[in-house]
Amino acid sequence: MTGNVLPIAELSGSPRHMGREHGEQFRQAIHEFAERRREVCAKQAERAGWPDPSADVLRFCRSTLRHHERYSPPTYEEFRGIAEGADIAPDRLMICNGLTDIIDVFRTAPTGPKGMGECTAWLAAPEATAEGFVLAGQTWDMHPWAEQYVVAFRRRPKDGPASLTLSTAGCLSLVGLNEAGIAVGNNNLIPTDARPGVMYLAIVHHVLAQRSLAAAVNAIVSAPRLSGHNYYLAGPEGEIVDIETTATRSDVLTPASAIYAHANHFLAPELAELEATPASHSSLYRLDRIQHLLHDLSGDITPEAMMRVLADETGQGDCRICRTDPSDHGRTCAAVVMSPQQGRLWATKGPPSKHDFHLLDM
Questions:
Q1: Residues in the chain with pLDDT < 50?
Q2: CA 6, 10, 151 angle in degrees (round to 5)?
Protein backbone atom coordinates (compact mmCIF):
# COMPACT_ATOMS: atom_id res chain seq x y z
CA MET A 1 0.00 0.00 0.00
CA THR A 2 1.04 3.62 -0.37
CA GLY A 3 0.63 6.71 1.74
CA ASN A 4 -1.94 9.39 0.97
CA VAL A 5 -1.49 12.42 3.19
CA LEU A 6 -4.52 13.05 5.39
CA PRO A 7 -4.72 16.74 6.40
CA ILE A 8 -5.43 17.21 10.11
CA ALA A 9 -6.89 20.53 11.19
CA GLU A 10 -6.56 21.61 14.83
CA LEU A 11 -9.52 23.75 15.94
CA SER A 12 -10.19 25.28 19.36
CA GLY A 13 -12.24 28.00 21.01
CA SER A 14 -15.84 29.08 20.53
CA PRO A 15 -17.95 27.46 17.80
CA ARG A 16 -17.79 30.60 15.64
CA HIS A 17 -14.01 30.82 16.06
CA MET A 18 -13.48 27.15 15.20
CA GLY A 19 -15.66 27.54 12.14
CA ARG A 20 -13.73 30.58 10.94
CA GLU A 21 -10.41 28.77 11.40
CA HIS A 22 -11.79 25.86 9.38
CA GLY A 23 -13.13 28.10 6.62
CA GLU A 24 -9.97 30.17 6.31
CA GLN A 25 -7.68 27.13 6.22
CA PHE A 26 -9.59 25.35 3.43
CA ARG A 27 -11.15 28.33 1.59
CA GLN A 28 -10.22 27.36 -1.97
CA ALA A 29 -11.11 23.68 -1.50
CA ILE A 30 -14.46 24.62 0.05
CA HIS A 31 -15.44 26.74 -2.95
CA GLU A 32 -14.42 23.98 -5.37
CA PHE A 33 -16.21 21.25 -3.42
CA ALA A 34 -19.38 23.30 -2.95
CA GLU A 35 -19.56 24.13 -6.65
CA ARG A 36 -19.17 20.50 -7.71
CA ARG A 37 -21.90 19.45 -5.30
CA ARG A 38 -24.15 22.28 -6.48
CA GLU A 39 -23.77 20.93 -10.01
CA VAL A 40 -24.78 17.43 -8.85
CA CYS A 41 -27.91 18.74 -7.12
CA ALA A 42 -28.85 21.00 -10.04
CA LYS A 43 -28.54 18.13 -12.54
CA GLN A 44 -30.81 15.97 -10.38
CA ALA A 45 -33.35 18.80 -10.09
CA GLU A 46 -33.22 19.26 -13.87
CA ARG A 47 -33.85 15.53 -14.45
CA ALA A 48 -36.81 15.73 -12.08
CA GLY A 49 -38.32 18.66 -14.02
CA TRP A 50 -37.76 21.56 -11.63
CA PRO A 51 -38.19 24.86 -13.57
CA ASP A 52 -34.99 26.62 -12.43
CA PRO A 53 -32.78 23.83 -11.06
CA SER A 54 -29.85 25.75 -9.56
CA ALA A 55 -32.00 28.53 -8.10
CA ASP A 56 -34.52 26.00 -6.77
CA VAL A 57 -31.78 24.06 -4.97
CA LEU A 58 -30.30 27.21 -3.43
CA ARG A 59 -33.74 28.43 -2.40
CA PHE A 60 -34.41 25.13 -0.66
CA CYS A 61 -31.05 25.28 1.13
CA ARG A 62 -31.88 28.74 2.47
CA SER A 63 -35.16 27.36 3.83
CA THR A 64 -33.24 24.86 5.98
CA LEU A 65 -31.07 27.41 7.80
CA ARG A 66 -33.66 28.29 10.45
CA HIS A 67 -34.14 24.59 11.27
CA HIS A 68 -30.42 24.22 11.92
CA GLU A 69 -30.29 27.33 14.08
CA ARG A 70 -33.15 26.08 16.27
CA TYR A 71 -31.92 22.47 16.51
CA SER A 72 -28.39 23.16 17.77
CA PRO A 73 -27.31 26.81 18.09
CA PRO A 74 -23.62 25.91 18.72
CA THR A 75 -23.49 23.69 15.63
CA TYR A 76 -25.14 26.41 13.56
CA GLU A 77 -22.65 28.96 14.92
CA GLU A 78 -19.77 26.76 13.77
CA PHE A 79 -21.42 26.33 10.35
CA ARG A 80 -21.80 30.11 10.00
CA GLY A 81 -18.17 30.52 11.07
CA ILE A 82 -17.05 28.16 8.26
CA ALA A 83 -19.06 30.25 5.77
CA GLU A 84 -17.48 33.47 7.05
CA GLY A 85 -13.94 32.08 7.06
CA ALA A 86 -14.30 30.68 3.54
CA ASP A 87 -16.23 33.73 2.29
CA ILE A 88 -19.00 31.56 0.87
CA ALA A 89 -22.78 32.03 1.03
CA PRO A 90 -24.49 29.81 3.64
CA ASP A 91 -26.87 28.29 1.08
CA ARG A 92 -23.94 27.12 -1.05
CA LEU A 93 -22.15 25.78 2.01
CA MET A 94 -25.35 23.91 2.91
CA ILE A 95 -25.24 22.07 -0.44
CA CYS A 96 -21.63 21.14 0.29
CA ASN A 97 -22.61 19.73 3.71
CA GLY A 98 -25.99 18.14 3.09
CA LEU A 99 -25.77 16.77 -0.45
CA THR A 100 -27.15 13.27 0.17
CA ASP A 101 -30.09 14.65 2.15
CA ILE A 102 -30.82 17.65 -0.08
CA ILE A 103 -30.82 15.61 -3.27
CA ASP A 104 -33.64 13.45 -1.85
CA VAL A 105 -35.94 16.48 -2.04
CA PHE A 106 -35.34 16.66 -5.78
CA ARG A 107 -35.58 12.90 -6.32
CA THR A 108 -39.15 12.81 -7.68
CA ALA A 109 -38.30 9.65 -9.60
CA PRO A 110 -36.05 6.69 -8.65
CA THR A 111 -33.10 8.20 -10.48
CA GLY A 112 -29.99 10.01 -9.40
CA PRO A 113 -26.23 10.13 -9.58
CA LYS A 114 -24.62 6.71 -9.46
CA GLY A 115 -22.27 5.68 -6.69
CA MET A 116 -23.36 8.28 -4.14
CA GLY A 117 -23.41 7.64 -0.39
CA GLU A 118 -23.00 3.85 -0.58
CA CYS A 119 -21.16 3.21 2.69
CA THR A 120 -20.68 0.04 4.76
CA ALA A 121 -20.74 0.38 8.56
CA TRP A 122 -20.12 -2.01 11.47
CA LEU A 123 -20.06 -2.28 15.26
CA ALA A 124 -18.25 -4.75 17.55
CA ALA A 125 -19.14 -4.90 21.25
CA PRO A 126 -16.33 -5.61 23.76
CA GLU A 127 -17.06 -9.35 23.93
CA ALA A 128 -16.40 -9.63 20.19
CA THR A 129 -13.04 -7.85 20.29
CA ALA A 130 -9.63 -9.18 21.21
CA GLU A 131 -8.83 -6.49 23.78
CA GLY A 132 -12.32 -6.02 25.27
CA PHE A 133 -12.87 -2.51 23.88
CA VAL A 134 -15.84 -1.58 21.71
CA LEU A 135 -14.90 -0.87 18.08
CA ALA A 136 -16.84 0.78 15.25
CA GLY A 137 -16.26 2.14 11.78
CA GLN A 138 -17.17 2.35 8.12
CA THR A 139 -16.18 3.06 4.57
CA TRP A 140 -17.19 6.39 3.02
CA ASP A 141 -18.17 5.84 -0.60
CA MET A 142 -18.87 8.84 -2.80
CA HIS A 143 -18.07 10.40 -6.18
CA PRO A 144 -14.40 9.63 -6.94
CA TRP A 145 -13.56 13.36 -7.06
CA ALA A 146 -14.68 13.77 -3.43
CA GLU A 147 -11.57 11.94 -2.17
CA GLN A 148 -9.34 15.00 -2.58
CA TYR A 149 -11.47 16.94 -0.05
CA VAL A 150 -11.18 14.44 2.82
CA VAL A 151 -9.90 16.09 6.03
CA ALA A 152 -9.53 15.04 9.68
CA PHE A 153 -10.33 17.44 12.53
CA ARG A 154 -9.18 17.55 16.14
CA ARG A 155 -11.66 19.89 17.83
CA ARG A 156 -11.28 21.34 21.33
CA PRO A 157 -14.38 23.48 21.95
CA LYS A 158 -14.37 26.10 24.68
CA ASP A 159 -17.54 24.49 26.06
CA GLY A 160 -18.14 20.80 25.39
CA PRO A 161 -16.15 17.62 24.83
CA ALA A 162 -13.16 17.47 22.51
CA SER A 163 -13.58 15.31 19.42
CA LEU A 164 -11.72 13.55 16.60
CA THR A 165 -13.58 13.47 13.30
CA LEU A 166 -13.20 12.60 9.65
CA SER A 167 -15.07 14.81 7.23
CA THR A 168 -14.47 16.94 4.14
CA ALA A 169 -13.38 20.52 3.57
CA GLY A 170 -16.13 22.95 4.59
CA CYS A 171 -18.24 20.30 6.25
CA LEU A 172 -19.35 19.51 9.77
CA SER A 173 -18.65 16.07 11.28
CA LEU A 174 -19.13 12.98 9.10
CA VAL A 175 -17.87 10.31 11.50
CA GLY A 176 -15.95 10.52 14.76
CA LEU A 177 -15.63 10.15 18.51
CA ASN A 178 -15.44 12.44 21.53
CA GLU A 179 -13.62 12.47 24.85
CA ALA A 180 -16.76 11.23 26.63
CA GLY A 181 -16.28 7.88 24.86
CA ILE A 182 -19.07 8.27 22.27
CA ALA A 183 -18.50 7.27 18.65
CA VAL A 184 -20.92 7.93 15.80
CA GLY A 185 -21.06 7.42 12.06
CA ASN A 186 -23.64 6.94 9.36
CA ASN A 187 -24.62 5.54 6.02
CA ASN A 188 -27.11 6.88 3.53
CA LEU A 189 -30.75 5.81 3.27
CA ILE A 190 -33.23 7.21 0.75
CA PRO A 191 -36.81 7.68 2.00
CA THR A 192 -39.72 9.40 0.30
CA ASP A 193 -40.51 11.96 3.04
CA ALA A 194 -37.61 14.44 2.63
CA ARG A 195 -38.53 17.99 3.69
CA PRO A 196 -36.95 21.24 4.96
CA GLY A 197 -35.09 20.26 8.12
CA VAL A 198 -31.69 19.43 9.60
CA MET A 199 -29.14 17.59 7.46
CA TYR A 200 -27.21 14.61 8.75
CA LEU A 201 -23.78 16.19 9.29
CA ALA A 202 -25.30 18.72 11.71
CA ILE A 203 -26.92 15.82 13.58
CA VAL A 204 -23.61 13.91 13.82
CA HIS A 205 -21.88 17.11 14.95
CA HIS A 206 -24.49 17.63 17.67
CA VAL A 207 -24.17 14.00 18.80
CA LEU A 208 -20.46 14.60 19.40
CA ALA A 209 -21.34 17.46 21.76
CA GLN A 210 -23.10 15.00 24.11
CA ARG A 211 -21.58 13.38 27.19
CA SER A 212 -23.83 10.30 27.47
CA LEU A 213 -25.03 7.68 25.04
CA ALA A 214 -28.66 8.37 26.01
CA ALA A 215 -28.26 12.05 25.12
CA ALA A 216 -26.57 11.09 21.86
CA VAL A 217 -29.47 8.82 20.87
CA ASN A 218 -31.96 11.55 21.75
CA ALA A 219 -30.05 14.05 19.60
CA ILE A 220 -30.83 11.84 16.60
CA VAL A 221 -34.39 10.71 17.25
CA SER A 222 -35.60 14.18 18.34
CA ALA A 223 -34.04 16.03 15.38
CA PRO A 224 -36.34 17.63 12.78
CA ARG A 225 -34.51 15.71 10.08
CA LEU A 226 -34.25 16.74 6.44
CA SER A 227 -34.13 13.16 5.13
CA GLY A 228 -33.06 9.66 6.14
CA HIS A 229 -29.80 8.15 7.28
CA ASN A 230 -28.69 5.22 9.36
CA TYR A 231 -26.69 6.22 12.45
CA TYR A 232 -24.56 3.77 14.43
CA LEU A 233 -23.23 4.62 17.89
CA ALA A 234 -20.85 3.12 20.45
CA GLY A 235 -20.82 4.23 24.07
CA PRO A 236 -18.30 4.63 26.89
CA GLU A 237 -19.42 1.40 28.61
CA GLY A 238 -19.08 -0.63 25.43
CA GLU A 239 -22.72 -0.24 24.34
CA ILE A 240 -23.66 -0.46 20.66
CA VAL A 241 -26.79 1.10 19.13
CA ASP A 242 -28.12 1.54 15.60
CA ILE A 243 -30.80 4.05 14.57
CA GLU A 244 -32.53 4.03 11.20
CA THR A 245 -34.29 7.25 10.26
CA THR A 246 -36.44 8.86 7.63
CA ALA A 247 -37.28 12.56 7.82
CA THR A 248 -40.34 11.86 9.98
CA ARG A 249 -39.74 8.43 11.53
CA SER A 250 -36.99 6.62 13.40
CA ASP A 251 -36.36 3.16 14.82
CA VAL A 252 -33.74 2.37 17.46
CA LEU A 253 -32.47 -1.10 16.57
CA THR A 254 -30.94 -3.16 19.36
CA PRO A 255 -28.27 -5.48 17.92
CA ALA A 256 -29.07 -9.11 18.69
CA SER A 257 -25.41 -10.07 19.01
CA ALA A 258 -22.03 -8.51 19.78
CA ILE A 259 -21.45 -7.70 16.12
CA TYR A 260 -23.60 -5.59 13.83
CA ALA A 261 -23.39 -4.21 10.31
CA HIS A 262 -25.43 -1.93 8.09
CA ALA A 263 -25.34 -0.88 4.45
CA ASN A 264 -27.75 1.29 2.44
CA HIS A 265 -31.21 -0.18 2.82
CA PHE A 266 -33.75 -0.14 5.63
CA LEU A 267 -33.94 -3.13 7.96
CA ALA A 268 -36.89 -1.95 10.09
CA PRO A 269 -40.13 -3.05 8.31
CA GLU A 270 -42.08 0.02 9.40
CA LEU A 271 -39.48 2.30 7.80
CA ALA A 272 -38.91 0.17 4.69
CA GLU A 273 -42.37 1.16 3.46
CA LEU A 274 -40.96 4.69 2.98
CA GLU A 275 -37.91 3.50 1.01
CA ALA A 276 -37.70 5.31 -2.31
CA THR A 277 -36.25 2.37 -4.26
CA PRO A 278 -35.73 -1.36 -3.60
CA ALA A 279 -32.52 -2.37 -1.87
CA SER A 280 -29.68 -2.32 -4.39
CA HIS A 281 -27.61 -5.39 -5.23
CA SER A 282 -24.59 -3.47 -3.95
CA SER A 283 -26.13 -2.80 -0.54
CA LEU A 284 -27.37 -6.38 -0.12
CA TYR A 285 -24.02 -7.84 -1.19
CA ARG A 286 -21.89 -5.57 1.00
CA LEU A 287 -24.03 -6.22 4.07
CA ASP A 288 -23.87 -9.99 3.58
CA ARG A 289 -20.12 -9.90 2.92
CA ILE A 290 -19.19 -7.84 5.97
CA GLN A 291 -21.49 -9.87 8.23
CA HIS A 292 -19.67 -13.05 7.21
CA LEU A 293 -16.27 -11.45 7.77
CA LEU A 294 -17.32 -10.15 11.20
CA HIS A 295 -18.69 -13.54 12.26
CA ASP A 296 -15.44 -15.24 11.21
CA LEU A 297 -13.46 -12.78 13.38
CA SER A 298 -15.84 -12.59 16.36
CA GLY A 299 -13.95 -12.78 19.65
CA ASP A 300 -10.69 -11.76 17.95
CA ILE A 301 -11.64 -8.48 16.32
CA THR A 302 -8.84 -5.91 16.42
CA PRO A 303 -8.46 -2.52 14.72
CA GLU A 304 -5.94 -4.08 12.33
CA ALA A 305 -8.35 -6.89 11.44
CA MET A 306 -11.08 -4.37 10.66
CA MET A 307 -8.69 -2.37 8.52
CA ARG A 308 -8.28 -5.52 6.42
CA VAL A 309 -12.05 -6.04 6.31
CA LEU A 310 -12.62 -2.49 5.08
CA ALA A 311 -9.98 -3.11 2.39
CA ASP A 312 -11.82 -6.21 1.12
CA GLU A 313 -12.22 -6.07 -2.68
CA THR A 314 -14.10 -9.33 -3.17
CA GLY A 315 -16.81 -8.87 -5.79
CA GLN A 316 -17.22 -6.82 -8.93
CA GLY A 317 -18.48 -3.36 -9.79
CA ASP A 318 -20.15 -1.65 -6.84
CA CYS A 319 -20.53 -5.01 -5.05
CA ARG A 320 -17.37 -4.53 -3.00
CA ILE A 321 -16.79 -3.31 0.55
CA CYS A 322 -13.79 -1.38 -0.76
CA ARG A 323 -15.02 0.06 -4.03
CA THR A 324 -12.17 0.40 -6.52
CA ASP A 325 -13.46 -1.47 -9.58
CA PRO A 326 -12.87 0.72 -12.68
CA SER A 327 -16.39 -0.11 -13.88
CA ASP A 328 -17.90 1.35 -10.69
CA HIS A 329 -19.19 4.94 -10.84
CA GLY A 330 -18.48 5.40 -7.13
CA ARG A 331 -15.37 4.97 -5.02
CA THR A 332 -14.38 4.32 -1.42
CA CYS A 333 -12.96 7.77 -0.68
CA ALA A 334 -12.13 7.11 2.99
CA ALA A 335 -12.41 4.51 5.73
CA VAL A 336 -12.50 4.74 9.53
CA VAL A 337 -11.91 2.44 12.52
CA MET A 338 -12.73 3.88 15.97
CA SER A 339 -11.98 2.84 19.55
CA PRO A 340 -13.94 5.41 21.56
CA GLN A 341 -13.02 3.96 24.96
CA GLN A 342 -9.35 4.47 24.07
CA GLY A 343 -9.87 7.80 22.31
CA ARG A 344 -8.34 6.48 19.08
CA LEU A 345 -9.39 6.84 15.45
CA TRP A 346 -7.68 5.33 12.42
CA ALA A 347 -8.56 6.78 9.01
CA THR A 348 -7.56 6.64 5.36
CA LYS A 349 -7.77 9.27 2.69
CA GLY A 350 -8.67 7.11 -0.27
CA PRO A 351 -9.53 3.40 -0.47
CA PRO A 352 -7.95 1.34 2.33
CA SER A 353 -6.85 -1.34 -0.14
CA LYS A 354 -4.46 1.23 -1.63
CA HIS A 355 -3.62 3.61 1.23
CA ASP A 356 -2.45 3.26 4.80
CA PHE A 357 -4.52 4.11 7.87
CA HIS A 358 -3.41 7.14 9.90
CA LEU A 359 -3.74 6.98 13.68
CA LEU A 360 -5.26 9.99 15.48
CA ASP A 361 -5.20 10.12 19.28
CA MET A 362 -7.46 12.28 21.40
A1: 110-115
A2: 30
